[in-house]
Structures are given as structure tokens and as C-alpha cells.
Specification:
By secondary structure, the chain is α+β, with helices and mostly antiparallel strands. It folds into five domains: about 75-260, Beta-Lactamase, CATH 3.30.450; about 305-450, 2-Layer Sandwich (Alpha-Beta Plaits); about 455-500, no CATH class; about 510-655, Alpha-Beta Plaits (2-Layer Sandwich); about 665-915, Alpha-Beta Barrel (TIM Barrel), CATH 3.20.20. Helix 1 (about 1-75) runs antiparallel to helix 8, helix 2 packs antiparallel against helix 3 and helix 20 (about 630-650) packs across helix 21. The longest helix has about 70 residues, at about 1-75. The termini are far apart. This is Diguanylate cyclase (GGDEF) domain protein. It comes from [Clostridium] asparagiforme DSM 15981. GO terms for molecular function: cyclic-guanylate-specific phosphodiesterase activity. InterPro entries: Cyclic-di-GMP_PDE-like, EAL_dom, EAL_sf, GGDEF_dom, Nucleotide_cyclase, Rev_trsase/Diguanyl_cyclase.
Length: about 950
């Protein structure tokens, strides 16, 4: 009977083994299938990616084509708007010009109708027999798109639509072009083109002929719905299609995908065959590997051990503790240890010291515990120990406290020893009652519950600390003394009122510069060893939003900036200057990580009403006490880091020794500059300018040069920037103007120099009576003002045009020429050149250096020259260095050239010698 039971048991065990082997084989086959499929999947992705790149190129072509057609070729409204502008200026009370101008367009079959709105009122509508009764209607009587054109002040394309007042119910594309003068809306022209004509011009059917399904759609601005404009076939899913987005100004999207899909049937068959061959190879390898199953099973046991310490890992410890709980009756004490701040500490001690610490843990535990035990490492800084021993509460506490010392981690911070202690939690497990995994999880859960709870004394201390730091949400509801509670409430009300007046920005309801100084001073006074970090956030080119829109729009943008920055900094956020915000972080997170999170906060544009503003930010960082021991030092240093980020074009700058050197260098430059101006030893160099028509140097530009005491010179841009920031630019400008005029008066006629160009800072331009002051300096030198050209940068003029226009007008009345320097950097529109108070355009090197390799840049140069000719402006090309550049710029019609190809800047005496030699033929190598 007993033998039968044993045989039955063996048969059952054998069946279980066979079932286990079959399951293993099935798992291996499934794994081989998955792995064999991976190359096919990878190749499929590569093929699809190639075809998608081809589709991207096609989309780019069609996107540019559609924009060119909509904004140029088919844009009948633009020419009518230009005519409207001219006629409104010359004959504002006569409307017959519109019927005459638009009549030619209406003769074309594709032009359905044309409207002219004078202001918000429809002044003329053609054909008059169909739409004449609409004359006198306001913008509000038409669709929202007419009002949108007025708001955006630029071309708006809408369609296909059927106009509500059109009796023929024609389906058209509507082109709306506002007429704007100096930012003021005067009216708009609306031209409707036949839908089929517009779509035919775009030529989307060519995409289908090339094997692509297409769908052109746009987002309806009023409700955000998708509106399909044209498509190759109905009921096509474009979710996997390639897309391109453009704005007119509503958002339009063109989606395309191959008719037969991204992968052809032949390619699919080839990939299947490839995967089949690869699967056969893997199956052969798996068969050979099966012979080593026993070895692999032995290696599998190693997964129970943590390789760094030699202790169990969580899986191994759970299994070992489970075996213990199944054996014997002795209680098992379970201890959990967590080294707080371990992750940050190992970054400081380095990999070698960390390895030594981890390797020594096993020996320290073994030396401390004398009874049977289990030990495991659960993660980077947490450990668990099980001891087969019965203990009372006191013994458990003593054992846990003693063993925690074995996990003591020493860290050296700023040459000072620091020790990280392990916090602990313990519990008793009864054999046969507890499940190992649950017992471990319960112990860890109890640990985190305990550490999250605070004692009343600690809570009171924390509230006092928060009150000292200036937090406004501190309450003392735990007090039972009613008089104390009333006193605390009265104090809080008084403190809030005082802080509101002294430490709060009234517009944005946040801390200001004095509050930052007070809060950080409290932080330092309370605990001088506590580290914290400062992060300064500057909104790049923020002033353009105030200039282009309004101060209220700018305030709304800053409100949203404050809301986003409040997430990482909370109440430690301050507005210290205009669009500059400062946050204090008590976190030990690295500066790079915090900066990355701050940049992520501004990945999405800021929306104000219907306007969307993408923002770019610069971030500067420093920390206490490494970069300053007082709030004032920290503020000075982080502002230096921010200034360095602006000047270097970096998005993130962390204060360091290099910035200290920069500050010392700037102090040296300022000192030398003050002495040079006072002692009249500051050098003024000159760069001649070639007049191509006469092949003579007829002008020159005066440039400041400050010796660095080492045989060289400081950067002129750095010298001028420091002078502007430190209130010296007026004295510097007056000095250069006086020296340059004196040189021109003495040598100009002999050298053939008819005009002298002198750079003008915006600070010189905007001070009181600046025009009279400048004219007085020029007159005192004996120089005719008509021979002086004052150069002002394009960016400064655009930002200060309203304030500068009056001063520039007075200077030009006196005969002084005004040159727009750095033209082409990115601010100007050719359309408003006629409105700028300038006589000369100086094209920036950033444009001229690209004309040999970029046809678009050459075309832009020719457009600038032509527009300057129309507006009676002279053009100077700066930064010309090679003969090839000189030739192509000359062919564009530029009158003057300035650059190394002809001559570098030089002192006055060398310029005299140089010009006496006359013009020479240059080689490719600049002088």
C-alpha cells in the first residue's frame, strides 16, 4: 500500500515536470517568435521613416507653394489695399478709384466680388448690382473674419465659404487685407475668388497623381472645429499621415499619406521572409542552448543576491524569510533601516567610496549580530534584517539603535565631516501566521506613516520657523490660551498689512526685492549651515510685447509667468525688476535639473484672449553659501550671471569663478574708460567706406578703442555695453563725437572724406535736450552738420521710435544724416521703411555673409536695395570680406561697401597714410 502511494506520488511529480517543460518550451518558442519579429519591425520602421521623410519634403514644398499662392500670386486684395492707402491719403473723399481699380480684377472669371471698407463701414461693393445694397453696413454685419482682419492688421484668408449676402450662393475663398498706417487701422479690402480656381492653383490633385491621399483642413477659430477644405477621397483615416501646419492667420493643416500605405505589399512579403529566416536561426540556437539548462538554473539563483553588498535583494530576502516562517516556533524580529539623503550623498562621495561602503556592510552586520539572521538590501539606501530571537520592546529598540550605527555613512561637504544616520522601524513576525511579502510591506508602510507624523513640539517649532521666514499662512489654532490665540491673530493681521506695503508688488501680489532681501536674511540667520539655491528667470525680448500690443497685454503675460513659477518656488518667488523673477529653492536638487524643469514650464505658449505668445527664458543660478554669505552678495552675483547669459546668448548660466573674473574685468574696463575719457587718451579709430560709383573712399565710421594694458584692446561692444549700464555712455558718446568731428574738420577735405559716421546710444538720444546738445558739440568743432551721420541700431529705433522720432526730426532738420545700423538682423519690415526717420541703411554682416550660399538672402538684399531706392535711401553693406562677396553685393546695386575686403579700422594717422595711397585692387585675403 505504501509502495503504491510512493509510485503515485512519483508519477504525479513526473507529470508536473513534463507539464513544466512543455510550458517552458512554449515560452521559448513565443520568445523566439517575438525576437525574430524585431528585425522586421525595425526594418519596417526604417522604410516607413524614409517614406515619411519623403512626404515631409513634399509637404514642405506644398506648404511654401500654398503660402506663396495665398499671400502673393492669388492675393488680389494686397494690391487693392496698397491702392486704397495711396488714394485715401491723396483723395480721401472720393471712392470711384476703388471701382476703377477693382473693375480690372472683376473682369477675370475667378474674381467673384470685391469690397472696400473705410474704417468699419462698407464704402464700396462690386459688382454693385448684386452687393450695392450692402454699402453702409458695418463690420459687425458680416462674418467674424472681417473683424479678425482688423484685429491682426495683416492678410487673412478664409474659405471655402458662402457669403450670407450672396444671392448666387457662390463658394469662394475670401482674401482680406487691412490698410494700416503706423499701427492704426484705416480700413480693409475684401476680394473673393472662386473656390475651384483657388484649389486648382494650389494643385493638390498632383499629390494624388503621385500616389498620395491628401486632406487640406483648417481649425475654425470660433469653435475650434475641424473644417475640411479639400481631400483626395472621402472616408480616409489620416491619423497616421504626415502633417504640416501653417497660418493665414487661422491654422491650416495639410495631411498626406501613400494611397497603398506606408509599406507596399512586396515589402511586407520581404519582411515576413526575413523574419522567418531569422526565426529559424534563433530556433537552432535555442535548441543548442537547451543543453545548458542546468547551468542556467544554477545561475538563476544568483538573482536572489544584491551584487554590490552580497546581501539578499528583495526577492531573495522575501523567499528566505518565507522559509523561516515555515520552520520552527521562535518569533522572528524584522528590522527596516533607511539612510535618509543617501542618493544625494553618493554623488558627493564618489563611486570608489560608495563601493567600499557597500562592500563593508555585510561584515559589519555579521560582527554585530550573533544569533541566526537574514539581511537584505531593498534599494539604494534601505536595508532589512530578520533575527530569529525573542525580544521585548526595550531590547528591540536597543538592537535597532545599535544596528543603525553600522549603517552610518560619512560624507565630507566643504571639507567638513557629516554623518548620515539610518532611521528605523521594527516589528515581530510569528512563524506560521505571517506571509513574508506582506510582513515586509507592512513594516515599510509603518515606517513611512511614522516619519510623516510630527510631534506637537516639532509642529510648533515649524510654525515659528515659517513665521520667521515671512510665510503668510501660519496659524496657531493648537493654542488653548485664548489670549495667546487673539494676540497671534492680531500680530498676523498687522504683519500682513505691513508686508503688503513694504514687501509686496501691488500689481502682481508677490514679493519684491526688499522682501527677497528680508527672507533670505532670515534663512541665513536661522541656520547658517543650511544651503539654498537662487534662480533668476528673465523673459527674453519681453519689451516687444508691450511695444507691439499694450501694457495690459504685457501685464497679463507676466501674471501667467508668475503663476507658472509659483509651482516650483511657492511663496519664495519675487519680482525684482520688470520681467525678471527670482526664486529661492531649499531643495537639494541639482541646478541643472531645476533649470530644466523651469524651461519645461514655458514649453507651452502663454495665451491672452485670442493671442498666443511663445516665450523664451534665460536662467541664472547661484547658491548659498558658496556664492555669497549675504543676500546682497547673492543678488549681485546672480544678476552678474544673468547678464553673462544675455551677453553670451546662453539659456542657462550658473555663477562661478569665470563670472568673478568677468566682474573684475568689467571693473578694470570701467576704471580705464573713466581715466581715458577724463585724460582724453581714449583712442578713436576709423574704418573707410567705399563709394562704388566713384571707386573712392568718401566716408568713414568712427569706432572707439580702449587699450587693455597688455598690448591689445577690449571689445568695443563690451566697452559700450558697460558704459550704458554704468551711466557713462553720454560722456563716452560726447568724447567720440567731438574727436571724430575734429578729425573730419582737419583732414576730411584733404583725404576726400565727405561724411563721418558716429554711433549713437539710445541713452544719448533720450536725455533732455539731446538734439540741442549734440548740435552744440558738432558746431563747436567747426564742422558742417551735413557732413555728420549719426548711426543708431535698428533694435533701439524700433523699441523707442515714438520717443526718438522728435529728436531725430530736429537733427535731420539741421542737416545731419541718420543711418539705421545692423539692418536685416530681424526686426525690420521692408514695408515701413518709408516711415522710419532715417537716410541710410547699413546692412548687417549676418545678411551679407549668406548671400553667396543662400539665394533667398541675395533676393532679400536686392529687395532692400530696391525699396531703399524707392524711398530715396542710401545703402551701405557692412562686413564684406572677400572679392566674391564684393562682386555679388555690387551686382545687387548697393552704393557703399564697408569691410575688411577694403580696410580694417585703423587710427587716424594710419587712415591718413592709407587714403593717400588711393583705392587698390584687393585679393581674396582681407587686409
Amino acid at each position: 500500500m505504501e509502495k503504491g502511494i510512493i509510485t503515485s506520488t512519483r508519477i504525479e511529480e513526473s507529470m508536473n515536470k513534463r507539464i513544466g517543460r512543455r510550458i517552458s518550451r512554449a515560452a521559448v518558442l513565443l520568445l523566439i517568435f517575438v525576437v525574430a519579429a524585431l528585425p522586421g519591425v525595425a526594418l519596417r520602421c526604417a522604410i516607413v521613416e524614409v517614406r515619411q521623410r519623403e512626404a515631409e519634403n513634399i509637404l514642405f514644398y506644398y506648404r511654401e507653394k500654398i503660402l506663396l499662392q495665398m499671400q502673393g500670386t492669388m492675393n488680389e486684395a494686397d494690391s487693392l489695399a496698397q491702392t486704397a492707402y495711396v488714394m485715401e491719403m491723396e483723395q480721401p473723399d472720393q471712392l470711384f478709384w476703388f471701382e476703377r481699380a477693382a473693375g480690372h480684377s472683376l473682369k477675370r472669371p475667378e474674381v467673384c466680388f470685391a469690397f472696400w471698407f473705410e474704417g468699419d463701414i462698407l464704402a464700396s461693393a462690386l459688382p454693385r448690382d448684386e452687393f450695392g445694397d450692402l454699402i453702409g453696413s458695418g463690420l459687425q454685419d458680416f462674418s467674424y473674419i472681417y473683424t479678425m482682419a482688423k484685429v491682426v492688421k495683416d492678410l487673412v484668408v478664409e474659405g471655402p465659404i458662402v457669403m450670407e449676402h450672396d444671392n448666387r450662393q457662390q463658394e469662394v475663398f475670401l482674401f482680406l487685407k487691412p490698410v494700416v498706417e503706423e499701427g492704426a487701422y484705416l480700413g480693409q479690402v475684401a476680394v473673393a475668388l472662386d473656390r475651384d480656381y483657388v484649389l486648382g492653383q494650389i494643385g493638390l490633385d498632383e499629390l494624388y497623381a503621385k500616389g498620395y491621399d491628401y486632406e487640406l483642413w483648417r481649425v475654425e477659430p470660433q469653435n475650434g472645429n475641424k473644417e475640411v477644405i479639400a481631400g483626395s477621397r472621402a472616408d480616409i483615416d489620416f491619423s497616421q499621415a504626415q502633417k504640416t501646419v501653417f497660418h493665414l492667420p487661422t491654422q491650416w493643416t495639410l495631411s498626406i499619406q501613400p494611397v497603398a500605405g506606408w509599406l507596399s505589399p512586396g515589402q511586407r512579403l520581404g519582411l515576413i521572409l526575413l523574419c522567418a529566416v531569422f526565426g529559424a536561426v534563433l530556433l537552432s540556437l535555442a535548441y543548442l542552448a537547451g543543453k545548458n539548462v542546468r547551468q542556467r538554473r544554477a545561475l538563476l539563483k544568483a538573482t536572489y543576491v544584491d551584487k554590490d553588498t552580497g546581501l539578499y535583494n528583495r526577492i531573495g530576502f522575501t523567499a528566505a524569510l518565507g522559509d523561516w516562517l515555515k520552520q520552527g516556533n521562535t518569533p522572528i524580529m524584522l528590522f527596516y533601516f533607511s539612510i535618509e539623503g543617501y542618493t544625494q550623498a553618493i554623488r558627493r562621495i564618489g563611486p570608489e567610496e560608495e563601493t567600499a561602503f557597500l562592500k563593508g556592510i555585510s561584515g559589519r552586520i555579521d560582527g554585530f549580530i550573533h544569533n541566526p539572521f537574514l539581511a537584505g538590501r531593498l534599494d539604494a539606501g534601505s536595508y532589512i534584517v530578520a533575527v530569529r530571537e525573542e525580544m521585548d520592546q526595550t531590547q528591540q529598540e536597543d538592537f535597532a539603535r545599535g544596528l543603525s550605527l553600522e549603517f552610518l555613512l560619512q560624507v565630507r561637504i566643504n571639507e567638513e565631516k557629516n554623518f548620515l544616520m539610518a532611521r528605523y522601524q521594527y516589528a515581530c513576525c510569528r512563524p506560521g501566521e505571517d506571509e513574508a511579502g506582506k510582513a515586509i510591506s507592512d513594516l515599510i508602510h509603518a515606517y513611512y506613516i511614522r516619519v510623516s507624523q510630527e510631534s506637537p513640539v516639532r509642529m510648533l517649532t515649524e510654525k515659528c520657523r515659517q513665521l520667521i521666514e515671512g510665510k503668510s499662512d501660519v496659524t496657531f489654532d493648537e493654542y488653548t490660551d485664548l489670549e495667546m490665540m487673539e494676540l497671534s491673530k492680531t500680530f498676523n493681521r498687522y504683519r500682513k498689512q505691513v508686508e503688503q506695503l513694504a514687501y509686496s508688488d501691488p500689481v502682481f501680489n508677490m514679493g519684491n526685492r526688499p522682501k527677497f532681501l528680508r527672507d533670505t536674511n532670515m534663512l541665513i540667520s536661522y541656520d547658517r549651515k543650511r544651503r539654498f539655491s537662487l534662480y533668476c528667470v528673465d523673459i527674453c525680448s519681453f519689451s516687444q510685447y508691450n511695444d507691439l500690443f499694450s501694457a495690459s497685454i504685457g501685464d497679463e503675460i507676466l501674471h501667467e509667468v508668475r503663476r507658472r513659477l509659483s509651482r516650483p518656488f511657492g511663496s519664495y518667488l519675487y519680482r525684482i525688476n520688470g520681467d525678471v523673477f527670482l526664486g529661492v529653492s531649499l531643495s537639494t536638487e541639482s541646478a541643472q535639473s531645476v533649470a530644466a524643469r523651469l524651461q519645461d514650464l514655458f514649453a507651452a505658449p502663454i495665451t491672452v484672449g485670442k493671442l498666443s505668445f511663445p516665450l523664451q527664458i534665460r536662467i541664472a543660478a547661484c547658491w548659498y553659501p558658496e556664492h555669497g554669505e549675504t543676500p546682497g552678495e547673492l543678488l549681485d552675483h546672480i544678476q552678474s550671471a544673468l547678464r553673462f547669459a544675455k551677453e553670451s546668448g546662453q539659456a542657462i548660466a550658473i555663477y562661478n569663478g569665470r563670472l568673478d573674473e568677468m566682474i573684475r574685468t568689467e571693473a578694470d574696463i570701467l576704471g580705464r574708460l573713466k581715466d581715458a575719457v577724463q585724460q582724453k587718451t581714449l583712442e578713436v579709430w576709423y574704418q573707410p567706406i567705399m563709394l562704388l560709383e566713384e571707386n573712392e573712399y568718401t566716408a568713414a565710421e568712427a569706432l572707439v578703442r580702449l587699450p587693455n594694458g597688455k598690448g591689445g584692446y577690449f571689445s568695443a561692444g563690451q566697452v559700450i555695453s558697460l558704459a550704458e549700464r554704468n551711466g557713462m555712455v553720454e560722456a563716452l558718446g560726447d568724447y567720440v563725437l567731438t574727436q571724430a568731428c575734429a578729425f573730419l574738420h582737419e583732414y576730411g577735405d584733404r583725404l576726400g572724406i565727405r561724411r563721418m559716421g558716429i554711433n549713437l546710444s539710445v541713452q544719448q538720444l533720450l536725455v533732455g535736450n539731446s538734439a540741442g546738445h549734440l548740435l552744440e558739440l558738432i558746431g563747436s568743432s567747426g564742422m558742417d552738420p551735413r557732413r555728420v551721420t549719426l548711426e543708431i541700431t535698428e533694435s533701439i529705433l524700433i523699441q523707442s521710435i515714438d520717443q526718438a522720432a522728435q529728436v531725430l526730426g530736429k537733427l535731420r532738420q539741421a542737416g545731419i544724416h541718420v543711418a539705421l545700423d545692423d539692418f536685416g538682423v530681424g526686426y525690420s519690415s521692408l514695408n515701413y521703411l518709408s516711415n522710419l526717420p532715417v537716410d541710410i541703411l547699413k546692412i548687417d554682416r549676418s545678411l551679407t555673409k549668406q548671400i553667396l550660399t543662400d539665394q533667398k538672402q541675395f533676393a532679400l538684399l536686392k529687395s532692400i536695395v530696391e525699396m531703399a531706392r524707392i524711398n530715396d535711401l542710401m545703402v551701405v553693406a557692412e562686413g564684406v570680406e572677400t572679392q566674391a562677396e564684393q562682386a555679388i553685393i555690387t551686382s545687387a546695386g548697393v552704393q557703399y561697401i564697408q569691410g575688411y575686403y577694403y580696410a580694417r579700422p585703423m587710427p587716424g594717422e594710419k587712415l591718413t597714410e592709407f587714403l593717400k595711397q588711393g583705392p587698390v585692387i584687393h585679393s581674396e585675403t582681407p587686409q
